[in-house]
């Protein structure tokens, strides 16, 4: 593919993925940034891993003229990190995800373009909180959603993602489980787990500042305006909103990957998205023949990652500025956090 053809593919892809609430680049600015990032990746033997909640310009893969070597959800990015052979991993996501990449690849340099890219959910619990929970409920297995920091993971029995949480919960013989930190995801899972196994779940009171905005009233309003649309809601959406949404419309509650698969398999043409805005960009790029009602509810932490600071992270390699971007986890925490992550990897 010539440079001109690659540029055309990139611009077409970028245009097709716009959700209406993103800050758009001019063609000249977009092409210039992408060209420099691609050159720096080659120079420094680096790969870019990008989450589905990244803006469209960071989700476009190399085959479409973009910068991302892999785009995925938390589990997909974790698996991709394990297979990386490059010297540097540039993580276009939030800090707990970059920590996971480092825990799995301690011999690689993991760079996060902005260390302020945190997570309200991950910040809702600490390792000390988990220690206290274990003392309060001795012997009860602790399942930690992957949206937690390394020091929290290190105190847990197993990690999970929204894609494999149900299978992991079902795998324990114990009739009681501790699930943390997302209370809404826990309640949604509890309903299914109780039906199937009768297990009880002890929940932490954390929540995602994006998904908790999808209240019953907000979703009902979108359903009223789009009566022919299916509803796509993430496990992290409040449980009362999930129950109402699926009682009134066809649809799914599930992980990001579940949602993507459902849209691809569904005969329906219209969908209401109850998740982060830029998952709408992913869906629009994958299924241009379908339409998506995508409220402009963005994760402020994810949006701290940009093409510009991704370029700057790559520029820093081999200079005194590199330390500004490097992710590091102390070895005593890394080694203890590795085991629950590895146990998670045994589940699809």
Report on the architecture of this protein.
The protein has 15 helices and 12 strands. The chain has 348 residues and is of the alpha/beta class. It folds into 3 domains: 143 residues, NadA-like (Rossmann fold, 3-Layer(aba) Sandwich), CATH 3.40.50; 82 residues, Rossmann fold (3-Layer(aba) Sandwich), CATH 3.40.50.10800; 83 residues, Rossmann fold (3-Layer(aba) Sandwich), CATH 3.40.50. The strands form 3 sheets. A 4-stranded parallel β-sheet has the order 2-1-3-4, sandwiched between helices. Helix 7 links the parallel strand 5 and strand 6. Helix 2 packs parallel to helix 14, helix 8 packs across helix 9 and helix 10 runs parallel beside helix 11. The model has no long low-confidence stretch (mean pLDDT 93).
List the helices and strands and how they pair.
Blueprint: H1 3-16, H2 27-44, E1 46-51, H3 56-59, E2 70-72, H4 74-82, E3 88-92, H5 95-104, E4 109-111, H6 127-136, E5 142-145, H7 150-153, E6 158-160, H8 165-171, E7 176-180, H9 183-197, E8 200-203, H10 216-225, E9 230-234, H11 239-248, E10 251-254, H12 256-265, E11 270-274, H13 277-286, E12 291-293, H14 307-316, H15 331-345
Parallel strand pairs: 1-2, 1-3, 3-4, 5-6, 5-7, 7-8, 9-10, 9-11, 11-12
């Amino acid at each position: 593919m010539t440079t001109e053809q690659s540029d055309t593919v990139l611009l077409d892809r970028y245009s097709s993925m716009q959700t209406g609430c993103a800050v758009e680049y001019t063609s000249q600015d977009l092409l210039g940034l992408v060209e420099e990032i691609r050159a720096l990746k080659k120079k420094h033997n680096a790969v870019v891993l990008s989450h589905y909640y990244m803006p469209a310009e960071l989700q476009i893969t190399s085959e479409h003229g973009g910068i991302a070597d892999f785009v995925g959800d938390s589990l997909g990015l974790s698996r991709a990190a394990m297979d990386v052979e490059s010297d540097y991993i540039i993580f276009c996501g939030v800090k707990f995800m970059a920590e996971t990449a480092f825990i799995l690849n301690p011999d690689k340099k993991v760079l996060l373009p902005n260390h302020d890219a945190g997570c309200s959910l991950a910040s809702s619990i600490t390792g000390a909180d988990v220690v206290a929970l274990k003392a309060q409920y001795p012997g009860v297995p602790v399942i930690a959603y992957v949206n937690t920091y390394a020091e929290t993971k290190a105190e847990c029995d197993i990690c999970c993602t929204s894609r494999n949480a149900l299978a992991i919960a079902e795998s324990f013989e114990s009739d009681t489980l501790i699930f943390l930190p997302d209370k809404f995801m826990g309640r949604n899972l509890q309903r299914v787990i109780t039906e199937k196994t009768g297990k009880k779940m002890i929940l932490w009171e954390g929540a995602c500042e994006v998904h908790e905005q999808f209240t019953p009233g907000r979703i009902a309003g979108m359903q009223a305006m789009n009566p022919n649309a299916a509803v796509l809601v993430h496990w992290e959406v409040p449980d009362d909103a999930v129950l109402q949404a699926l009682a009134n419309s066809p649809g799914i509650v599930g992980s990001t990957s579940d949602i993507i698969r459902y849209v691809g398999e569904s005969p329906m043409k219209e969908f209401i998205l109850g998740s982060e805005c830029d998952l709408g960009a992913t869906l629009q790029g994958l299924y241009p023949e379908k339409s998506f009602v995508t409220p402009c509810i963005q994760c402020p932490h994810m949006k701290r990652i940009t093409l510009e600071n991704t370029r700057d992270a790559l520029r820093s390699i081999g200079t005194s500025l590199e330390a500004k971007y490097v992710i590091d986890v102390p070895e005593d925490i890394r080694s203890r956090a590795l085991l629950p992550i590895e146990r998670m990897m045994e589940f699809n």
